[in-house]
Amino acid sequence: MVSIGERYASATDSAAEVGARLVARKRLHFVRVADYVQRRLSNLPHNYPPIIPLVSDISLLTVTVVALVQRDAFIPPRWPLLAGFIAIAPILWVFAFDYKPSERTAPLVLAAGAIVSTGLLLLEPRPADAAPFIMMIVVGEVAATATLRIGICVAAATAVVLAVPTAMGRLDNAPVYLMLIPLGWCVGFMLQTQMRLLERERESQQQRAEQAASDERRRIAREVHDVVAHSLSVTLLHLTGARRALQEDNDVNEAVEALIDAERLGRQAMSDIRRTVGLLDDSRGKTTPEPGLGDLDDLVAGFIRAGLRLDFTMHGDADRVSASIGLALYRIAQESLANIAKHAPGAKAELEVTVRDTKVTVTATNTTAKDQLVGQGGSGLIGMRQRAELLGGNFSAGPSPEGWSVRAEIPLAAQADSAGCWFQI
């Protein structure tokens, strides 16, 4: 005999198996619906959301069933079932089979099925007939997925199908049904227009993002170039001074001081490079403040300690200059002095900054021989010019009566436009 516990366990196992089968069946249906939606979306020319084809297909199925019920096509089965099957055949084809019609054939197949099925159903028109709504839905879907010419042709063909029973006087409320065709076409055409505008906006945003990233890379490249060029130039001056102190004067103390300055500058350069490269990180709060006009004294002092004969004068109130303009002028002065140290060693240099009511000017000049003017160009001058022009200023560099001159002029009005736009420098 089977005990009550065994019977209960067997019943429990059977219920668990039935539940597992139900869950597996629901999961299978969900996967099939997901595959169907994926195939439908792959056939659409635009990136429509999944809800659009689902609502369209469910509406078509609902209207078709209502039209068949109006004609008593189910009990007993009658020939209008064939018309209904033709209307929903494209949907069943995609749902039941792994069929992926092309973007051109899919609207035509759907339109042909709707026109044929509606024509057959209208052989037995009914009051408040739902059959014309089949063509309205299909015309809207074709207008949303196909070209303008195909959409207009399909709308015209469906209008002819409605015009025939209307002319024969067999279709009630014919003007209302005839208005459904342009209504469905307008809805589909507006959907396609909106999707095209959305795609263009996304492309435009992507282009702007790429342009912003490119500008940021160029800005960081300029920062790294200025830091490295300045550090190497001043470090070489210190090393040259140490070598001369040992070779010519045999002064160990002076050589040690020059080497200490070179080491200090090298460490500072590494810190500046880490800070500049750190701009690539999103955590901007970790970066140190950018240099400005107030840091020119330290910059000039470093070059003077390295052996550059340099006179520096400041006219006006440097506090009136914004951080963005101050950074640009600091980098221009830094690059100019580095070029002087590199291309005209031993020359006498002058750095002058003038802050006026409407503009600020930085001028760097140096005396040099004519044969030393060659080579004072390249990416450094390009970077300085870009810094000035991005802020609406002017930049010039070239030979002067004394030797070589670099001049940058930036309007102070630019600081109002560049406020909060530190990434444009």
Describe this structure in words.
By secondary structure, the chain is α+β, with helices and mostly antiparallel strands. The chain has two domains: 23-172, no CATH class; 207-424, Heat Shock Protein 90 (2-Layer Sandwich). 65% of the residues lie in helices and 9% in strands. It is built from twelve helices and five strands. It has helices spanning 4-43, 51-70, 80-96, 105-121, 131-145, 148-167, 174-249, 252-277, 296-305, 323-343, 379-390, 414-417; strands spanning 309-315, 348-355, 359-367, 394-399, 403-411. It has a five-stranded mixed β-sheet with strand order 1-2-3-5-4, covered by helices on one side. β2 (348-355) and β3 (359-367) form a beta hairpin. α4 (105-121) packs antiparallel against α5, α4 (105-121) runs parallel beside α6 and α7 (174-249) crosses α10 (323-343). The longest helix is centred in the middle third of the chain and has 76 residues, at 174-249. The N and C termini lie far apart (91 Å).
Short description:
With 425 residues, the protein is an alpha+beta fold. The protein is 65% helix and 9% strand. The chain has 2 domains: 23-172, no CATH class; 207-424, Histidine kinase-like ATPase, C-terminal domain (Heat Shock Protein 90), CATH 3.30.565.10.
